């Protein structure tokens, strides 16, 4: 059966609630703006959490706007810069599934349509409310006949559409859950990249901290091979909040602990340590999923660089204890996970990589002995895979090979690359 994907707009497709942003634009010079902003936010949250009917919340919010056509133009410009990161990087999915993706929102077409159209979403698949205006272009209200302006509006709309197939809903609020409650959709995915509402999480079929997660669990085309929210990033010790925020905003699953607890050793993918913290050799040897370590100080005598290198773990540290490295070190860690960059690593060959489009990036870390690259390229040749770019850097211990391939590959290719003798680590970036 055909699949359909019902996607919410506010705090899902975009990082923000559009009406909240609109009132900040329209009332920027109003003496009571902060009080009005708070009222709008409270009304939004009350509706999203199911504590206030959507119709009542919408009516009160629109009355507080005092906005016009010019304010809407400014809002659209702002929203285009506020598309959720995981949606923004997965444009290819929307292009491939243009017929199956529907934007269904209690927001307004006047600002939703120009934001989502560049993602190849069809204009006839955009369902939202519409404003009413006076002759001067001031917003006076909204079309109250539109089912999306009413309580249970998304349910009413979907009943009218009579879609035949498997329907999946993605959103952050109560109106999104109502689709599941009505029995009209197969699964409801609570989207938490921007906001997490506990009352909604408890009712979801699956919590998806990013759109990558939704695509991953449903085996759909995705920009990255593995959702970053599934990569456990352990913060150890007295690490500045600004350093933590770098990794949190990038979407990694953060745990902040006073010590490197044993229960995390087997599953941790990234570790950021405060100056003075240590990782014992025994723990390091057991950290089989660990990909990178950041150290906010000089890691010499704190972490065994030899063991880390032998395990394919990239270390970034701050030997000169520069204050700017509170952000610099976690950024280097994120760049390694996201792009494969090892620039300014303490133990790996330093490599900065270009961004690529329409390609898959594969990382192969191996012991530095002759013949490995020939074996890697033989695997690609045997499977008729075209190499669009390849990079190799070595030091005395290891070789670090990055290959960008322009064709899709089957699992056998990955299996053969992993099984090359002297392979230390292999992973797919995207």
Automatic annotation (TrEMBL):
<comment type="pathway">
    <text>Amino-acid biosynthesis; L-serine biosynthesis; L-serine from 3-phospho-D-glycerate: step 3/3.</text>
</comment>
<dbReference type="Pfam" id="PF22629">
    <property type="entry name" value="ACT_AHAS_ss"/>
</dbReference>
<feature type="domain" description="Acetolactate synthase small subunit-like ACT">
    <location>
        <begin position="362"/>
        <end position="425"/>
    </location>
</feature>
<dbReference type="InterPro" id="IPR050582">
    <property type="entry name" value="HAD-like_SerB"/>
</dbReference>
<dbReference type="GO" id="GO:0006564">
    <property type="term" value="P:L-serine biosynthetic process"/>
</dbReference>
<dbReference type="Pfam" id="PF12710">
    <property type="entry name" value="HAD"/>
</dbReference>
<keyword id="KW-0378">Hydrolase</keyword>
<dbReference type="InterPro" id="IPR036412">
    <property type="entry name" value="HAD-like_sf"/>
</dbReference>
<keyword id="KW-0028">Amino-acid biosynthesis</keyword>
<dbReference type="GO" id="GO:0036424">
    <property type="term" value="F:L-phosphoserine phosphatase activity"/>
</dbReference>
<keyword id="KW-0479">Metal-binding</keyword>
<keyword id="KW-0718">Serine biosynthesis</keyword>
<dbReference type="InterPro" id="IPR045865">
    <property type="entry name" value="ACT-like_dom_sf"/>
</dbReference>
<dbReference type="InterPro" id="IPR023214">
    <property type="entry name" value="HAD_sf"/>
</dbReference>
<dbReference type="GO" id="GO:0000287">
    <property type="term" value="F:magnesium ion binding"/>
</dbReference>
<dbReference type="InterPro" id="IPR054480">
    <property type="entry name" value="AHAS_small-like_ACT"/>
</dbReference>
<dbReference type="GO" id="GO:0005737">
    <property type="term" value="C:cytoplasm"/>
</dbReference>
<protein>
    <recommendedName>
        <fullName>phosphoserine phosphatase</fullName>
        <ecNumber>3.1.3.3</ecNumber>
    </recommendedName>
</protein>
<keyword id="KW-0460">Magnesium</keyword>
């Amino acid at each position: 059966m055909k699949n359909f994907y019902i996607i919410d707009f506010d705090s899902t497709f975009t990082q923000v609630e559009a009406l909240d942003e609109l009132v900040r634009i329209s009332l920027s010079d109003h003496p009571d703006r902060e009080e009005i902003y708070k009222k709008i936010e409270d009304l939004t949250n009350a509706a999203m959490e199911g504590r206030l009917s959507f119709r009542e919340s919408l009516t009160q919010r629109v009355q507080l706007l005092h906005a016009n056509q010019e304010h809407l133009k400014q809002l659209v410009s702002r929203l285009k810069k506020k598309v959720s990161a995981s949606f923004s990087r997965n444009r290819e999915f929307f292009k491939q599934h243009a017929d199956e993706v529907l934007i269904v929102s209690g927001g307004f077409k006047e600002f939703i349509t120009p934001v989502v159209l560049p993602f190849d979403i069809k204009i006839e698949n955009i369902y939202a409310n519409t404003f009413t205006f006076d002759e001067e272009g001031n917003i006076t209200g909204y079309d109250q006949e539109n089912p999306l302006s009413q309580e249970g509006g998304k349910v009413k709309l979907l009943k009218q559409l009579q879609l035949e197939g498997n329907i999946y809903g993605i959103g952050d609020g109560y109106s999104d859950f109502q689709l599941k409650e009505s029995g009209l959709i197969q699964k409801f995915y609570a989207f938490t990249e921007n906001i997490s509402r506990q009352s909604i999480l408890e009712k979801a079929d699956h919590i998806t901290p990013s759109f990558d997660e939704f695509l991953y669990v449903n085996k759909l085309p995705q920009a990255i091979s593995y959702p970053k929210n599934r990569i456990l990033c352990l913060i150890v010790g007295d690490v500045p909040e600004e350093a933590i925020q770098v990794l949190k905003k990038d979407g990694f699953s953060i745990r902040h602990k006073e010590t490197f607890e044993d229960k995390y050793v087997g599953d941790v993918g990234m570790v950021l340590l405060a100056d003075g913290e240590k990782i014992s050799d025994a723990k390091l040897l057991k950290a089989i999923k660990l990909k990178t370590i950041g150290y906010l100080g000089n890691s010499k005598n704190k972490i065994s660089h030899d063991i880390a290198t032998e395990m394919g773990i990239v270390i970034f540290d701050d030997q000169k204890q520069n204050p700017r490295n509170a952000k610099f070190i976690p950024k280097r860690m994120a760049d390694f996970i996201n792009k494969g960059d090892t620039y300014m690593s303490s133990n790996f060959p330093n490599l900065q990589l270009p961004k690529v489009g329409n390609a898959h990036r594969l990382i192969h870390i191996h012991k530095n002995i002759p013949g490995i690259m020939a074996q890697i390229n033989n695997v690609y040749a045997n499977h008729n895979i075209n190499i669009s770019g390849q990079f190799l850097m070595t030091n005395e211990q290891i070789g670090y090979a990055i290959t960008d391939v322009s064709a899709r590959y089957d699992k056998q290719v990955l299996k053969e690359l992993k099984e090359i003798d002297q392979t230390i680590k292999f992973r797919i970036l995207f």
